[in-house]
Amino acid sequence: MKILFKNIKELVQVRTETISFVSGADMKTLPTINNAFLLIEDDKIIDFGEMSICPHINDAEIVDASGRIVMPTWCDSHTHLVYAGNREGEFVDKINGLSYEEIANRGGGILNSARKLSETTENELFEQSKERLHEIIEQGTGSVEIKSGYGLSFDSELKMLRVIKRLKEESDIEIKATFLGAHAVPSEYNDNKAAYLKMLIDDLMPIISEEKLAEYVDIFCETGYFSVADTEQILEAGQKYGLVPKIHVNQFNSIGGVKAGIQYNALSLDHLEVLTDEDIAEIKDSNAMPVALPSCSYFLSIPYTPARKIISAGLPLALASDFNPGSTPSGNMNFVVATACIKMKITPEEAINAATINGAYAMGLEHKVGTITVGKLANLMITKPINSYASIPYNFGSSKIENVYLRGIRQ
Ligand code: NIG
Ligand code: FE
After folding, report:
1. Which of 183, 185, 270, 305 best tests ligand 1's pocket when mutated (most atoms within 8 Å of CB)?
2. pLDDT band at 221 (very low <50, low <70, confident <90, very high)
3. Ligand 1 geometric centre to CA of 52 (Å)
4. Which pick of 139, 245, 310, 386 has the fewest CB atoms within 10 Å?
């Protein structure tokens, strides 16, 4: 089955050669073709170029994209979209002045979500999560990473990972799974964090590896959660089971987690709201992708990741949503891109690179998605008639997407 998109006002993020990511000053360049065509066959991109050389194809469905922009779908490399219920009560507590930490200390926060998840059946958890997945697809996301970490027990962590596996099997979106058992210490292990870590490593990791329930391992390396030593222990064990690290680090404090992540070849370092010059120097010597989560900063009213400082250091930057019930109850990547432009002062070109190819790299999907390149998946968003791709961040809060195709299938 072939589809030929004709008269595209601007085809965005076109790359004739496969690249892994863009960094530093190159992030300002977003290659596009004005008045373009794009040809897909089954699930792949097979040709594109200027309309003047558009081939005549007899057996293709024709889509007239006049006035519209076509671009690769968003690559959201950091979410926790499998969760039960919501935390609207804490939302009001926060409005009334309580901080994220104060809410957590009262038994709210991650532990509150873990309680709700333990009371929810696997099927119900699947249904709730599927709804969120459909919502982000409508908003233009075509590949997504999803973490466990609201289970915090042997049974519930497996329940979450099996839900992610089922979502993978039943949806056209690309999904990567991450084991985040070390998200918080559950109350039953309050005085014995070592025993909790042992359970994660000795009981859960072997099953996760055997049943191929996750590609990545993650840990919340933060004061009051898990230390650098805990991080090293989890990442080392993860390595043994073939789980590549992606870590929550430097959200509130810089405690040495960046260095630890890099030592264990982390694929991505996520959050980085608090970032020292030493941290930046460490990242420069690595292959790790720094990932900023501006919707989280927005929702919690905490500092934004210093994107300009990261890019000026010659580093790449990815943008992700952090979709979760506590710090970011939104998976809308259009809002992420807008907030990055408005609050982190990066240009639309930098933000789109960060939310497509660089996000793909942070999920190990850079050869499959994230650019318009022959041979990559036909994961596309078609905008409504708009002035330019800058309208997406400029008109923040309004949806500019008309259609989304995943693997060549209109969603
Ligand atoms: O990435 N920082 C740690 N984990 C999540 C929030 C989890 C929650 O509050 O439920 C995050 O922001
Ligand atoms: Fe997170």
Report:
1. 183
2. very high
3. 49
4. 386
The closest ligand to the CA of 295 turns out to be 1
Q: Is the Cβ–Cβ distance between 358 and 374 less than 8 Å?
A: no
Ligand 2 center–CA 403 separation, angstroms: 28
Range of the domain at 23: 2-72+371-410
Pick from 342, 361, 380: which residue ends a domain?
361
List alpha helices for 96-201, DSSP H: 100-105, 110-118, 122-138, 154-170, 193-198
Whether the pTM exceeds 0.85: the reply is yes
**Protein residue whose Cα sits closest to atom 5 of ligand 1:** 327
User: Are both 42 and 183 inside the same structural domain?
Assistant: no
pLDDT band at residue 18 using 50, 70 and 90 as cut-offs: confident
Regarding whether 377 and 354 lie in a shared domain, the answer is no
In a mutational test of the pocket of ligand 1, which residue from 220, 298, 321 has the highest number of ligand atoms less than 8 Å from its CB? Answer: 220
Residues touching ligand 1 (Cβ under 6 Å) are 109-110, 113, 220, 248, 251, 296, 322, 324-327
Are 230 and 128 in the same domain? yes
Regarding whether 115 and 22 lie in a shared domain, the answer is no
Asked if 48 and 121 sit in the same domain, the reply is no
Phi, psi (rounded to 5 degrees) for 400: -105, 5
pLDDT over threshold 90, residue 100 = no
> How many beta carbons lie within 10 A of that of residue 27, not counting itself?
25
Please give the C-alpha separations between residue 384 and each of 9, 69, 134, 318, 351, in angstroms, as whole numbers.
11, 8, 19, 25, 20
CATH code for the domain in which residue 334 is found: 3.20.20.140
Question: Using CA positions, which residue lies closest to atom 9 of ligand 1?
Answer: 326
What is d(CA 333, CA 181) in angstroms, rounded to the nearest whole number?
25
pLDDT number for residue 17: 87
Same domain, 30 and 46: yes
pLDDT above 70 coverage of the chain, percent: 100
Domain boundary among 343, 361, 379: 361
Question: In a mutational test of the pocket of ligand 1, which residue from 82, 113, 246, 324 has the highest number of ligand atoms less than 8 Å from its CB?
Answer: 324
Ligand nearest to the CA of 84: 1
pLDDT at 216 exceeding the cut of 90:
yes
In a domain, 366, yes or no: no
Kindly state the average pLDDT of the residues 166-184: 97
Report which of 301, 277, 279 is spatially closest to residue 290, judged by C-alpha positions.
279
Computed over every residue of the chain, the mean pLDDT equals 97
Cα torsion 94, 97, 98, 101 to 10°: value is: 90
Number of domains in the chain: 2
